[in-house]
Write a structure and sequence with these properties.
Radius of gyration: 29 Å
Number of domains: 2
Strand order of the largest sheet: 7-6-5-4-3-8
Mean pLDDT: 83
Low-confidence stretches: 18-24, 178-185, 255-261
Helix content: 40-55%
Number of strands: 10
Structural class: alpha/beta
Order of helices and strands: HHHEEEEEHHEHHHEHHEHEHHHHHHE
Largest sheet: 6 strands, mixed
């Protein structure tokens, strides 16, 4: 009896397993997998309740970033985050390489072409070869669903051939070069196989980036589910955090090891057969079922406070409070704190061995106060209600432009900026209109914060 797609995906041994140990760097992938799970869960609802016997599940970090399994069917999913600075996918080689389609094709090929495949990415597809490939995939999928032969018209033939050549550059020896005689003429068998792959491929592009998914995901992915449960008007944030938490854990899991760290005594004695598949127990910790989603959602809805994201902890230093009131970002505040400490260390070392250092430090303080005064005027002139962030940018520009001789030669621009941060911590520089800093510090201490 021929194997099903689900059997092939669950039983075959992947060639590498690095994803599960490094998935903590890919929180965006966990979010995309959670979105898939919520879609599967919504499909499994009947009259606001989970349909009995639904065995749909997601297997994390197995063959690809995750695999969706339902009954005898399976789909391999590759998730590729692409920062805006990298732009859209414009060439077939980019899609095959950094877009992950070559790896996806390789796993599909090894799994005897049984599963369907999907690429999930933040990047769009540029006009030209990238969009032409997507159109060819649409065309071939329609023919497959209609039960027709997977032959492409003249409009799609060239892009399929070009994509096959791009795949060949990034595939291992398991996919031999096209052409029986080793020539560069694409063999018909390879052309047909690439056509079959494209007929099973979906490209989902334009997904929210990692900078935005945390804000967009609750409304985009949880609101429809809550509506399906008859819970209109309920905040989707706790539900999203509960489901995302499942995937954050499961995408890092390597599964239970029944023998722990015990040595494999006599495991490979003469006559022992080589392992042919994956023990189902090794996948247990990587699987999220729709029943798991149901439990997580209902727990979050019953106790929403336990699943809300933690508020950021306030830093209890004067400069941190003043920059916060001025509208500066957390990253700017952290940098300012570090530069202030670096500046203090510089002068501790300088003063301890140089009797004239105090006079130099006093002269530098006067220069930095003048720079701060000028930068503040520039920032306020922009007319923004919160001008602290603009001041931070103006200060960086002005300390870099300070004339030679205005400060010690070994005091670079970052340390000069650290000097201004030290002045701000002494309440000699402000990032907003002045206020009672000590009262604000007392209030923050009452609700908890990070010690200075």
């Amino acid at each position: 009896m021929a194997a099903t797609a689900a059997e092939a995906v669950l039983s075959a041994i992947p060639p590498d397993d690095s994803g599960a140990s490094t998935a903590d760097r890919y929180d965006w992938q966990a979010a995309m997998a959670a979105a898939d799970a919520l879609g599967l869960y919504l499909n499994a609802l009947e009259d606001g309740r989970l349909r009995d016997g639904d065995d749909t599940r997601i297997v994390c970090e197995h063959h690809e970033d995750w695999a969706v399994v339902r009954g005898a069917d399976a789909e391999l999913v590759s998730a590729k985050h692409r920062d805006p600075s990298n732009g859209v996918f414009s060439t077939l080689n980019q899609l095959a390489d950094s877009g992950g389609l070559a790896h996806l094709f390789g796993r599909w090929h090894v799994l005897t072409e049984l599963p369907s495949c999907r690429l999930v990415t933040t990047a769009g597809l540029a006009r030209g070869p990238a969009q032409s490939l997507e159109k060819a995939a649409f065309f071939l999928r329609d023919r497959r669903l209609a039960g027709e032969t997977l032959t492409a018209s003249g409009e799609h033939e060239q892009v399929i051939e070009d994509f096959a050549r791009a795949l060949q550059q990034h595939l291992p020896g398991s996919w031999p070069p096209p052409g029986a005689d080793g020539s560069e003429v694409l063999g018909q068998d390879r052309y047909a196989q690439v056509s079959r792959f494209l007929s099973l491929l979906t490209i989902e592009h334009g997904k929210p980036s990692r900078q935005h998914v945390g804000y967009a995901a609750p409304g985009m992915y949880c609101d429809p589910v809550l509506n399906g449960l008859g819970l209109q008007g309920v905040s989707p944030v706790p539900a999203w955090e509960a489901v995302l938490g499942l995937f954050r854990v499961r995408m890092r899991a390597r599964g239970p090891v029944p023998r722990g760290a015990l040595p494999a005594v006599l495991a490979y004695r003469p006559g022992t057969e080589a392992p042919t598949g994956v023990d189902a127990r090794d996948l247990a910790a990587r699987i999220v079922t729709v029943a798991d989603i149901d439990v997580a959602l209902r727990a979050a809805l019953a106790n929403p406070g336990g699943y809300r994201p933690l508020a950021p902890i306030a830093r209890l230093t004067r400069i941190a409070v003043k920059m916060t009131v001025g509208g500066c970002t957390d990253n700017s505040i952290e940098r300012a704190e570090q530069l202030r400490l670096d500046y203090q260390r510089y002068w501790r070392a300088r003063v301890s061995g140089d009797p004239a250092a105090r006079a130099v430090q006093d002269g530098l303080r006067r220069s930095l106060l003048r720079v701060s005064d000028q930068a503040t005027s520039d920032a306020i002139a922009l007319g923004e209600d919160a001008w602290g962030s603009a001041l931070w940018q103006k200060l960086q520009a002005r300390v870099e432009e300070m004339a030679a001789g205005a400060c010690p030669d070994d005091l670079d621009a970052d340390l000069r900026l650290g000097g201004i941060c030290d002045l701000a911590n002494r309440c000699q520089v402000w990032f907003s209109s002045s206020f009672d800093v000590e009262a604000e510090l007392a209030r923050l201490r009452a609700v908890g914060g990070t010690a200075p």
